[in-house]
Amino acid sequence: MPSSVTQRRALLLLREVRGGHPEMESELPPDLEPGMIFDIVDPAGALHRVPLPAGGRPKEGELPSCEINAYLPQEAHVPWAAGLTPEHRSPLGLGGTWFISSIQAPARGYGVSTVLKSEEAAMSLQPAVTMATAVLSVFSRTPHLHSRLGQDVLLDCGFTAPPGPFSVEWRYQYRGAGRVVLAYDGVSGRAHVAEEGAQLFLEEGRVDADTNVSLRLSRVGVRHEGTYICTIYLPHLHAQQALELRITGESGGAPLSSCLCSQPWGRSI
Fold first, then answer.
1. Per-state percent for the chain, helix, strand, coil, to nearest 5
2. Rounded distance, CA 178 to CA 181, Å?
3. What gap in Å lies between CA 18 and CA 39, rounded to an integer?
4. Is the entire prediction scored with pTM above 0.90?
5. How do residues 38-78 score in pLDDT, each as one tens digit?
6. Which parts of the chain are beta strand (E)?
């Protein structure tokens, strides 16, 4: 880690709805700094899907990695998200303190990044605990993928957020170089960028339900191997998930998409 970066231990407490202060407060680790305990409400439940060990002493690699940082809401400077913030100024509702958390469990097939808004009034009642609500969660159930040459591959990505406009960006990165594979402008309802063989499956969810924005790649080759970053833009907010794709073996065999899709596909873009 760079010398300018300071790491501090933190604890995330997850609940679906706010029901008072944590009942286990007396059992919380005493060595945590004030404000480093985050009591998080996640109505849509994306954080609750993080796979945890069933019991006993967890084996190496079973526990997910977790990180939380300060976050600053701001408009996105990409063409496909420009329509989300036509007035170029933040509404009063974006005031206060924001955080972004990342919980990754690639060995168990899940990763999620969540933008959190703190509840300032609740914080004053219990200064040792930071109360926050999940506003935007971007997740993937295929953080690591392997495919044979010539197959079709489905890169799973979804998000939960309040109803409203959004944009989607899929970016490819490999050895320091990158490009946008597909970019969808949710305001105009069209794709700004769409490489040949790349297709977005867009299925919008109901209130507090998932929106599916998975990417399908047709007949993958060695050039497709690398990291794919799924970014969701809301007005003044964004979060992303990274997926690793590895290409191995000979062509042929059943397409991976037949076993990776766990949701009904919506319309394609």
1. 10, 45, 45
2. 9
3. 9
4. no
5. 999 998 999 999 987 776 566 766 788 999 999 999 989 99
6. 11-15, 37-41, 65-71, 98-105, 110-118, 129-140, 144-148, 153-155, 158-160, 167-174, 177-185, 190-194, 198-203, 211-217, 226-234, 237-248, 267-268
